Backbone:
């Protein structure tokens, strides 16, 4: 009796100390998340009901900031632009990353080198990359348009100087920059597909396209699901390349949500209004992610056979 | 180990305290002074050195911020309550911003106590008065003039620009000066990508400002600029300037620009930069119906942070920069001071390298500011720049551009 109680007590204290260790290891991350993410989100949500310019006392204005959103042409334009960016860049990145991953998954000499090359843009600084791409895009002296002219395109696009082409230019550059990262995720997924599935298909007389369609794609669907969620979220947050390459222009052609939020907050010092916009952005991303999870069991295949 | 640490620590701390308190000397007041591009403008250091020599009990610590981010960064610093005693106010948009947030200390009591005469600062000082109170003391005041490259004029056999030239004549001359192709092309003139290059000179023909929401008066200015860019090809295209990040300073100093409409701050750069351009200045071209010498003027002031605890010392610095002594140093370095006495102007125009006959080009008739102080100034500035870039890159017609400006101006005011 006494002994069991003692043992229980001992095991409890062991459990407790283990818990403590676990929490201690979690602490730095949780602390960072709390201080740098969760608290600012909550504060921003609160701010969206205020009128505050950083200097004069804040005023409670109820839903005024949200009402204003419905009338603001700047918000409408930046929301449209963000959706445009997301709708084009996400599928493009997924298709390209999958294509590259399949290509790089072959067992050939020098494959490591190619993998490194495609991953390279990912580790380069966005600022440097954006500046270089701006030079490539130069309408009259840039290599891209020089090439286009040399193959007979009489009027090559004005890229970042043109309302029509500025967004495609930014998208193209962003896809190039991020595709390596998602290729690596796909590569990992590809290597997780058991070889025997392909062997069985070969015996059944399937050609490579059929194997790709009926084995690779379904087996990769969890990876595709993960990638599409990551991409949609990061596309809604696009900011750095816009600031460097076009500064939202020409006119408002590349004015995206985060850029507009930044401008309202730090250009005009309307923190309440900017927070309202950020809250709406949060809601949009949340809803899209929820929809994605809802659709998950329609097309994502988790069985390993 | 632990014991040793606990012994060593207090000793080290004590040493640090002793060293620092010795360095600080006897009761010296330290002023924090925020300004942009300090390291690129040696004249500021010269004024500070002279000031510290005269007031040994005050030490000036400079907070140097890059020009492009100065207005935003300053606002954030002031809002965060960072210790800044004196700061430079770069333009009227910033001024309105600081004023609305109560960051500026009214200066009348100091002006009266010192018996400072404000008349030599000219009428532009009205722009930094609020409810009869002076909110900042001008230490620099710039006007726009016309810079020209004498070699390009000589080569084309065209007489140098006169002090009485219309913008139409400007266009004709620019056409004659233009030659060459590609990277060797000599541009007869140059409009930088700032909207003010096109939108501001014509302000002198109207009583409106760019904040009034009526933009039809801009039409002739845009027609001229677009014709020069698209038909005459005598100026570098807006799109090219933007995409290649061209800076007017580099382009003019490499001898590829015949005429440039720019503020007098560029005189200081031309005097101190290394280049081979033989340059001259003339009065700004003018639109029909305005007098020669009518031009755009800007004012740069120093203000005292309303939260500063060292306002008396701060005023000493402000009035030194804006006063006689500071003005002499600025003038001798090719920077046009806010204080415009005959003597100061003489120092300014007799700086070695100052172009002959340049003094006359600095005499002004009517002057106007780019954007008057207003709470909307920042929002208007951005809106006007966006529509400006749309018009200049030919994305929309001039009519559409002007209509957009009017519509968006209304939106800004209604939604404020």
Residues:
């Amino acid at each position: 009796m006494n002994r069991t109680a003692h043992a229980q007590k001992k095991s409890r204290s062991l459990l407790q100390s283990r818990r403590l260790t676990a929490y201690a290891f979690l602490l730095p991350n949780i602390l960072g998340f709390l201080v740098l993410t969760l608290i600012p989100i909550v504060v921003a949500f609160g701010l969206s009901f205020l009128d505050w310019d950083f200097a004069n006392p804040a005023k409670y204005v109820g839903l005024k900031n949200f009402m204003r959103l419905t009338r603001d042409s700047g918000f409408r334009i930046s929301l449209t632009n963000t959706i445009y960016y997301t709708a084009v860049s996400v599928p493009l990145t997924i298709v390209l990353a999958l294509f590259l991953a399949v290509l790089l998954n072959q067992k050939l000499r020098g494959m490591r080198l190619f993998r490194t090359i495609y991953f390279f843009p990912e580790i380069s600084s966005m600022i440097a990359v954006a500046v270089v791409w701006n030079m490539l895009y130069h309408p009259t002296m840039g290599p891209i348009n020089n090439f286009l002219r040399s193959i007979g395109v009489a009027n090559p696009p004005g890229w970042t100087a043109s309302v029509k082409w500025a967004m495609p230019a930014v998208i193209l550059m962003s896809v190039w920059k991020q595709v390596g990262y998602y290729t690596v995720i796909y590569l990992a997924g590809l290597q997780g597909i058991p070889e025997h599935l392909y062997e069985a298909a070969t015996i059944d007389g399937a050609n490579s396209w059929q194997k790709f369609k009926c084995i690779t794609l379904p087996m990769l669907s969890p990876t595709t699901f993960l990638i599409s969620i990551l991409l949609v979220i990061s596309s809604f947050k696009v900011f750095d390349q816009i600031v460097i390459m076009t500064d939202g222009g020409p006119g408002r052609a590349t004015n995206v949500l985060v850029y507009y939020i930044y401008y309202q907050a730090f250009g005009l010092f309307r923190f309440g209004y900017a927070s309202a916009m950020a809250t709406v952005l949060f809601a949009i991303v949340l809803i899209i992610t929820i929809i994605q999870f809802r659709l998950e069991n329609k097309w994502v295949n988790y069985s390993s056979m | 180990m632990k014991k040793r640490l606990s012994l060593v620590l207090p000793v080290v701390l004590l040493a640090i305290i002793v060293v620092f308190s010795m360095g600080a000397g006897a009761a010296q007041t330290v002023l924090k002074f925020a300004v942009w591009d300090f390291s690129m403008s040696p004249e500021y250091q010269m004024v500070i050195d002279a000031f510290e020599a005269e007031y040994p009990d005050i030490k000036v610590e400079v907070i140097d911020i890059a020009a492009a981010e100065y207005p935003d960064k300053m606002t954030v610093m002031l809002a965060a309550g960072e210790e800044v005693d004196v700061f430079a106010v770069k333009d009227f948009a910033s001024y309105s911003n600081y004023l609305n947030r109560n960051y500026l200390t009214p200066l009348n009591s100091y002006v009266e106590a010192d018996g400072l005469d404000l008349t030599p600062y000219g009428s532009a000082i009205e722009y930094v008065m609020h409810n009869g109170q002076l909110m900042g003391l001008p230490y620099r005041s710039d006007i726009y003039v016309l810079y020209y490259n004498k070699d390009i004029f000589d080569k084309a056999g065209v007489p140098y620009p006169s002090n009485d030239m219309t913008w139409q004549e400007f266009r004709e001359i620019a056409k004659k000066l233009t030659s060459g192709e590609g990277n060797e092309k000599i541009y007869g003139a140059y409009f930088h990508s700032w909207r003010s290059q096109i939108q501001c000179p014509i302000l002198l023909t109207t009583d409106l400002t760019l904040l009034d929401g009526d933009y039809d008066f801009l039409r002739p200015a845009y027609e001229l600029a677009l014709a020069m860019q698209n038909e005459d090809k005598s100026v570098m295209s807006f799109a090219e300037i933007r995409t290649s990040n061209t800076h007017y300073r580099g382009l003019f100093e490499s001898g590829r620009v015949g005429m440039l409409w720019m503020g007098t701050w560029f005189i200081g750069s031309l005097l101190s930069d290394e280049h081979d351009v033989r340059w001259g200045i003339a009065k700004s071209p003018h639109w029909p119906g305005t007098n020669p010498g009518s031009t755009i003027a800007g004012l740069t002031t120093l203000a005292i942070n309303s939260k500063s605890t060292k306002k008396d010392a701060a005023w000493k610095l402000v009035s030194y920069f804006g006063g006689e002594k500071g003005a002499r140093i600025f003038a001798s370095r090719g920077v046009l001071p806010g204080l415009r006495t005959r003597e100061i102007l003489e120092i300014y125009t007799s700086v070695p390298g100052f172009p002959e006959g340049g003094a006359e080009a600095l005499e002004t008739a009517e002057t106007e500011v780019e954007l008057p102080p207003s709470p909307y100034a920042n929002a208007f500035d951005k809106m006007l720049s966006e529509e400006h870039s749309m018009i200049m890159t030919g994305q929309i017609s001039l009519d559409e551009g002007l209509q957009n400006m009017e519509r968006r101006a209304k939106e800004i005011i209604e939604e404020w």
In short: The interface with chain B takes residues 53-56, 68, 71-73, 134-135, 137-142, 158-163, 248-253, 263, 266-269 of chain A (CB under 8 Å). The CA atoms of residues 4 and 10 of chain A lie 10 Å apart. The two ends of chain A are 52 Å apart (CA to CA). Chain A has twelve helices and two strands.
